[in-house]
Specification:
The complex is a heterodimer.
Chain A lengths: L3 E4 L2 E5 L4 E7 L4 E9 L5 E8 L4 E4 L2 E6 L4 E6 L8 E9 L5 E3 L3 E6 L1
Chain B lengths: L4 E3 L2 E4 L5 E6 L6 E7 L6 E7 L2 E4 L8 E4 L6 E5 L8 E8 L7 E2 L3 E5 L1
Parallel strand pairs in B: 2-11
Antiparallel strand pairs in B: 1-3, 3-8, 4-5, 4-9, 5-6, 7-8, 9-10, 9-11
Classes of the chains: A mainly beta, B mainly beta.
């Protein structure tokens, strides 16, 4: 079974700082990987989807990279803002089946 | 356009009762997923529908849980003889096709007293 780990579990940074969130997975036979943000008491908002054939995806201040062979993905957030404060989750879909496996998330706080 | 909606947003029920949770996916999305999220954890897969059929129900914890999607659109997650351990947020997601980008609803918070 795919195991997804996110480190750190919590992160606090001053506004304006660039930061990196990490996601690792045990089975490199993945179909795609998706990053989400979750605000307290809310559902998940999709940020970026990376197909297994891609190395990275960018959207605004966000950049997600994928290294399948090492079982890792990173989410880079540039020039962080207080509005970026949320929990960030990564989810991995394997080549077989249609399940997405989630990590436990990184709780980000951006201090004004 | 309209996103995924879930009703009710909150449900409090007594142990042993039956509950139904509803999900309205984005129009035209053929794939629909149910997840369960406990406090401080990531969502845990329950069941996946492709059209009307349950293509993968391997995540359902036991036979008290059942889900349907009779017309390939709205889905209902049904829990019989609820237990306190069933308390969680139940999330629904849809995607245009299986394995593509998922769009989540706001969830239903279920509390079993």
């Amino acid at each position: 079974k795919q195991e997804v780990t996110q480190i750190p579990a919590a992160l606090s940074v001053p506004e304006g700082e660039n930061l990196v969130l990490n996601c690792s997975f045990t089975d490199s036979a993945i179909y795609n990987l998706q990053w989400f943000r979750q605000d307290p008491g809310k559902g998940l908002t999709s940020l970026l989807l990376i197909q297994s054939s891609q190395r990275e995806q960018t959207s605004g201040r966000l950049n997600a990279s994928l290294d399948k062979s090492s079982g890792r993905s990173t989410l880079y957030i540039a020039a962080s803002q207080p509005g970026d404060s949320a929990t960030y989750l990564c989810a991995v879909r394997g080549n077989t089946g249609n399940q997405f496996y989630f990590g436990t998330g990184t709780s980000l706080t951006v201090i004004p | 356009g309209a996103g995924v909606s879930q009703t009710p947003s909150n449900k409090v029920t007594e142990k042993g009762k039956y509950v139904e949770l509803r999900c309205d996916p984005i129009s035209g999305h053929t794939a629909l997923y149910w997840y369960r999220q406990s406090l401080g954890q990531g969502p845990e897969f329950l069941i996946y529908f492709q059209g009307t059929g349950a293509a993968d129900d391997s995540g359902l914890p036991n036979d008290r849980f059942f889900a349907v999607r009779p017309e390939g659109s709205v889905s209902t997650l049904k829990i019989q003889r609820t237990e306190r351990g069933d308390s969680a947020v139940y999330l629904c997601a849809s995607s245009p096709e299986a394995g593509h980008e998922q769009y989540f609803g706001p969830g239903t918070r279920l509390t079993v007293t």
